[in-house]
Amino acid sequence: MDAAFLYFETPTMHMHVGGLMLVDPSAAKRPYSFEDYREYIASRMHRVPQFRRKLATVPLNLGKPSWIEDPDFDLDYHLHRAVVPAPGGDRETADVAADVLSRQMDRSRPLWEMWIVEGRADGLVAIVSKVHHSVIDGVTGANMMAELFDLEPDAAPAAEPVVDDWEPERKPSDLELVGRSLLDVVSRPVGVVKLLPGTLVGMGKLARRRGGGAPGMPAPFRAPRTSFNATVTAHRTVAYTHVSLDDLKTIKNAFGVKINDVVIAVCSGALRRYLIAREELPERSLISAIPISVHASSEEKEGTTKISIMFASLASDVEDPADRLRQIARTNDGAKADHELVGAHMLQDWAEHAAPNTFSLAARMYSGLRLANRHPVVHNLVISNVPGPPIPLYFNGGRLVELHPLGPVMDGAGLNVTVLSNMDAIGFGFIACRELMPELWDLADAVPEAVAELLEAARGLGKAAPHAKKSAKAKQPAESVG
Hints:
By secondary structure, the chain is of the alpha+beta class. The protein folds into two domains: about 1-155 and about 170-175, 2-Layer Sandwich (Chloramphenicol Acetyltransferase); about 190-390 and about 400-475, Nonribosomal peptide synthetase, condensation domain (Chloramphenicol Acetyltransferase), CATH 3.30.559.30. It has 14 helices and 14 strands. It has helices at about 1-5, 35-40, 75-80, 90-100, 140-145, 175-210, 245-255, 260-275, 320-340, 345-350, 355-370, 440-445, 445-460, 465-475, and strands spanning about 15-25, 55, 65-70, 80-85, 110-120, 125-130, 235-245, 285-295, 305-315, 380-385, 395, 400-405, 415-420, 425-435. Helix 7 crosses helix 8, helix 7 (about 245-255) runs parallel beside helix 13 and helix 8 (about 260-275) packs across helix 9.
């Protein structure tokens, strides 16, 4: 799966993920300086080993690349300094993040960058991170972030000095890499044959379940086309906002649903407002791809990216917010049941046998021929919900104030919404193709209104909420977090 994110990347469809963090340096004992931040980050490199690994690519792309410890690692290549333009607010900060995320990464180096952005009018320091999806997914990204932060503004040094025993690694010769790839090529047909029976059994179970009329996952290629469902360019635009976690829990408890259902309903309400304002709300519901973490059930698999995909209806064709949330929760339960029948590891298992040259060429042809504009829409956007830190975090003594993740966009689905909890807030990160959604802030600004209408509906339920919660809890499976 890690390698698949490399194969599918094109000059316009970047497979890196981003993050925008706002840090208040006033809590630190020493005033802010870039040099201090650099020293702090350098002292944490041993905690994030992925940051000092780079790709060893097989000649002619004949097989999967390998990770090696970079013999030429240079922190200054990855750490940058920028100044937000006047007036130094959120929109200007988002523009800096969009510019950083609009550029493809250099595969001859470890696949990450970090930008320290100064000059905000409110005195906050913005940190923009960019890491390739072959290195992290939502769960490993959150874990990496935790290694870069402290639990106290001035954390005491370790009782014993930390020994950084990292050593650079010799790059394998071309002959060694080709030899490894030949073994992979020889074993690939055997692996495919082993996968087929289980895949066919899972698909058969799904067909029987859906044939019985049970609600379930919306089918791909059935999504309505919107203005952001087209071939993307390399340019990105970014917007962000945050809402109260307690407000979302109030809605969840009143309707007896899950936080994931509420997040999707908030995104649906915001998208309805955005599309109605542009007179392009489709008659059929939007469909989102939802990444699902399979870390908890895949310890035996190597790699850092362990995800599967589920499709979800946004019920965007339902006008009443309460009915919309109920329908989202109902179809999500069916979609999760479908996903379990197919198998959480199916995507990863098949990705093991992806041929690098074939998939890389196909991705470039798909983008170059703008095929996303010609076939039915697979899904409209990606919505990912990642659990974040429930406790205060500090970066070089400065308090983490806001945290907004930013996922990749792709041809045919030029919008990504990634949501991450932090303390008592839920941060929404929006990233889109700039040409397809130049007014992305209109979508971010619609999020608080979408929350407000759901809160009003929740309060209108009155005393029926506890009973609804109890009955729903008895019927619903454990929640999966994308």
